[in-house]
Amino acid sequence: MEIVTQAPFRVATERWKNLPRMSEAEYPGTEGYIGDVYENPEGSVMCSGFFELRRTDEPLYYEYEYDEMKVVLEGEFLLENKETGQSVVAKAKDAIFFPKGSKIHFSTPSYALAFYAGHRDASLL
């Protein structure tokens, strides 16, 4: 009989709390917080975590070097790709897919929290 060993599944609790603030020098005029919960666990090609954005003076601009999915948990994000002209409001329970190469401007009227999973190495955050 062959014995199969498998890594146990994981559960992270309250990891959306006290996220590290994104660099004000790199993202001026914004108040964004982000943190990976899982960074390539068990050799996976994925990273996942939470992204929080509070009301901003300027949109937070991010260029994706990898594919990523987000699920809005609370609040709403205004998502704009100024190169393509696409503009969408994503609200709680909406699922978003950003293909590699997306150039997105994030803003919110007050607050938004999302969970993300990206096909990337932990060093890209």
From TrEMBL:
SUPFAM superfamilies: RmlC-like cupins. Gene3D superfamilies: Jelly Rolls (2.60.120.10). This is Ethanolamine utilization protein. PANTHER family: ACETATE KINASE EUTQ, ETHANOLAMINE UTILIZATION PROTEIN EUTQ. InterPro entries: EutQ, RmlC-like_jellyroll, RmlC_Cupin_sf. It holds the Pfam family EutQ. Coiled coil: none annotated.
